[in-house]
Every structure is written in structure tokens, then in C-alpha cells.
Design goal:
Length: 273
Amino acid sequence: MWKAAGLFFLAALFCATPGLAGQDLPKGNIPDSREFLSPVTGAKFALIPAGPFMMGAPSGEPQRHKDETLHTVILSRPFYLQTTEVTQGQWKRVMGKNPSRFNRCGDDCPVETVSWNEVQAFIRTLNKMEGTDRYRLPTEAEWEYAARSGTDTPFHTGRCLSTDQANFNGGHPLRSCPKGTYRRQTVRVGSFPPNAWGLHDMHGNVWEWVQDWYGDYPSGGVTDPAGPPSGKYRTLRGGSWGSNAGYCRSAVRFFYPPDFSYRYLGFRLAATP
């Protein structure tokens, strides 16, 4: 029932609110390109359209956690999101050294063992190298909206996630879903098919830092949420190579102190048009 009601509400909201659809944005707010490449790292970015969505998970979703309260979010502006996680090669081009535990995986594997604070240093350095201020981490809402890419199921692939679709601990699938491979380490980014918006590895491979402090969701609908103004932990999304399928769901939330790094933790960049 939540699905039908939610979709009806979002459709009505989207049609009734001027400027939510990317093509309806006022002139001057429409980016010139649907994608771009970073001149320093070579990273590819896809344009994510503005719009509303249901953030969180319904009460009946398998392995749902209490902090995944379902609520309406409107993202009023389009943004760019890197189509893969930041790789070891991209990190080295900006920061020089490779901190990754799985460094033998190669330059095309995701950088990991990086803290939120270290990611901020990477972003500052990259912005300086390119003479811009456009690069940043996505907000938690932007990340989930992009991961869902128009879906309302546990994964953008549907109710189940297979190890032909993502890198996670296939020995522990979601309830009633088939088991698969457990690779026990990261794999090259882009090894699996993208979602509908051209984004790879939004489920599994490495947990991805987002900008927000971790905290409770608001009780009602919100526009362009940015999380609590302060906190103790920064938020991560998406699950990793070591996660069971339940921790790779689009709605799942994880958190660590901003100075914590480990071999499960990486990130992807957002960019302002």
C-alpha cells in the first residue's frame, strides 16, 4: 500500500512543483552537459536530475533498521555524481601515495582505508589543482536518490541482489534470495552493470562516505536536507565487499568517526553544476 500511495503522492508533487524536473529548471540552472570528465583524475561524472523521492525503507523491508524511517525528500537542484567510486589511481594523481589495503588490486580498484577527514583533504587538493570549488561529497539524500535511480525496492536491481550484480558477501543474501560468491576483497570499479542513471557499484565494493553527520531523519518531508549541523559520526552508504546483502540496500545507513579509516571504506565525488 505504501508503494502505491507514495508513488501517487510523488507524481502529484513532481508535476505540481515548478522546477523540480531537470528540463523545467529556470534558464541558467541547466548544466551544459549530461556528463563531464575531471581533467586531473579522468573521473567520469553523470548528471543526476532534480526531483522528489521516498527516502528510507518501508516497515516490511527485510533487514530494515530503525534509523531508516520512510519520509519524502525533494532535491530541488540537479547535481553531478561520479559514475564509480574514486580509484586508487585517481587518489594517487591527487595525493601522491596510495593508502589502500588492497593495493595489489590495481589502479582501477577503489581507494579504501581512507577516513572522512582524509577525503576532505583530497577534495580540497583536487579543487585547487583544477582551480574550482565544484567537487564535494554527496549529501546522504543525494546519495540514496542516485542509488535508487527511480526505484523503491531494496536494491536498484529489485528485491534481490546477486554477486553477478555487485561485490558483497554472497553467502548472506537477502531473505529468500539465492546465495553467490564471496570474493573477500575489492574488485575493479565498473565491473558490474550500472543502474538506470549510469552509476556503478552503488551496492557493495566499498562503503562510501557522504557529507552528513549521522543523526535521526526528520519526522516529515524535507527539501534539500543536509543532515544535522554537528555530531560525533559521519555517515556512510552502500555496503562493501565484506557486507551481507542487507547492508547493501539503498536505504541502509552506517557511521564512523570522521578520523576512522579501514579497508571497507571509500567514497565517490559529487560536483556542483
